[in-house]
Amino acid sequence: MGSTLHFRSTGVTPTSVSLRRSLIALAVLTGSASAQDALVPLQGELDPLVVTGKAENLLGEALAASKGQSDREELLERPYVRRGELLEVVPGMIVTQHAGGGKANQYFVRGYNLDHGIDFGIFIDGMPANYRAHGHGQGYADMNFLIPEFVERLDYQKGPFDPRLGDLTTAGAAEFSLVNSLEQGFATLTVGEDEYFRSVFGDSIQAGSGTLTFGGEASYYNGPWLLDEDAHRFNGMVRWHTGDDENFLTLTLLGYKAEWTSSDQIPERAVLAGQLDPFGFIDPTNGGQSQRYSLSAHWGRRSDDVLWRANAYVGYYDLDLYSNFTYFLDDPVNGDQFRQSDQRIFFGGEITATLENRSLFGAETDYTLGFQSRNDSIWDLELARTRQRADVNPIREDDVFTGNYSVFAGAETKWNDWFRTEAGLRADLFYFDVDSDDPANSGNEWDGIGVPKLNFIFGPWDDTEYYVNLGGGFHSNDARGLFTRIDPNDGVTPVAPVDPLVRTWGSEIGVRSQWSEGFTTTASLWYIYSESELLYVGDAGNVEAGPSTDRYGIEFAGYWRPNDWFGADAEIALSEGRYTDTSAGPFVENQVPFIISSGITLGKERGLFGALRTRYFSERPLTADKLVESEDSFQVNARIGYRWENCEVALDCLNLLDRADNDVEYYYTSRIPGEPAAGIDGTHFHPAEPRSLRASFTWYW
Known about the structure:
CATH superfamily of the largest domain: TonB-dependent receptor, beta-barrel domain
Number of domains: 2
Shape: globular
Helix content: under 10%
CATH class of the largest domain: Mainly Beta
CATH architecture of the largest domain: Beta Barrel
């Protein structure tokens, strides 16, 4: 979706815009000279301004109320603790962390505790960021390879309603587009409390027939923890682009490498007893290292009324992750630390053809046909018990290949001035192959699934559209779970294999109103059914199958940009997740029932600027019977700065109110030295970071 050009300027109110429209209509209909003359002073007052971001007018374009976008300006004007919080522009989404800064974030949206990403897809220029059969869990989505300054826009949608989106996207998806060219070269240095250092630079130059954009980032952070995080990260990007919006070729090289130490979550009982500081730790050797490198190509071509789009990518990724969540429960001598290792090559691509301005029963229709493929070749997929990062007891080692081959088709039809539809169908074929160190847990299998999509859009009437969305979705399970017959922890206990693919269904009713050129509101009522909460438990090396679930909720959002120096937004999300089998309790653990996010931004291209953002998420059930609940969280981040022609300075205050909130909380059994051998059930948490200041200086050329 491109930006829409509207007549607005600083100081011009919606009333004056309406007056202008009335005068234009009067001049056209009556040919009145006085009416035409009245346009002259107003034309002098108004300058064209591009309205972008979440306040952009999407009437006639969006297929659902929960679909939207955010641009580079909106993303970069937000003060944030970690880059994963870029995803919090998605209404009703919460991004937190329960371990060191090099690990994938925790994601929460629409009644899902997504863990590290399952059921929410993240893409960068069409390249998926979620990993299947990952060492730490299915759908693991690590965004640390992304440099925020090189993101051009973020398109998001909720629910399984888009035929382009398949595996791991039932709750929704976010698609990042990187910049093709920077208007100015830049270099930024940021320093902050707890030994926070970050430097990033970027520039664009002419290179042959196109533009070469390049940049890099280096950062270091020890954090507020008693155990120094010692997290250091290096990122780089090189991108060559040629062409225009319809005919183009883009080549992108991304690289990332990081190491860190992690405090992980700690038992609340030890803090209440005075044995541990809230920012303390139990195992000082937790942490890990990770790296990722990718090469991708993005191509587009228009041939008369056929629009072609294609992308292809290949990449290398590895991770060594050391964790200890139960401390000394399973092994009182060596402790319960374990290593999860993942080393893979991933490759795939997509090609689509959109046939525009065709006819369906006399109605104008655009047809889209597409093919996608994604493949993961994984070796040294390991799980081992360790002590101070040294192997004590290998649990399992696998070589895994997963291949996914998909076709999809959609027809977007405008039946008349007030009614349009999009009907789609998607079919996916999967191949799973596991070569395990235990032959009993090896095998290969083909499986497939087809899902329909149907979207109805009514209006606009009085600048308001109404949506009814229906669709099927699915997520794949970890390939190891398909063939595991013997529990790898003891090599004896029989294990029931799981289904390769889990079907889901979703529906949504929504409304979008464009009250003025810069004021948008949306509301949606939604429902999602999942046949089973099947999830590979990376910490144990096996797969557990849960009952089916129902999730439902309602979301409200408002975005207001009355001029080019002020913006405000507010989002409210209420959701509920229930198991259909209530024998152990009806409530889906760690679902977030109530979320509020809001903020304001101030400032022009020059002079004083600032931002203030708030985020609240409520108590949530930690057990299925809801007898144990988490604490709520309310965080406020602020920024103030000043811009000159060639430089700017900014000061961020994170957790402005210095609240002692928790990023995550879980309820399970663990044991620390001196406790009973069977351990103690209790809440475990990872605290939010206390108030901290970060100052930045940026130079432009």
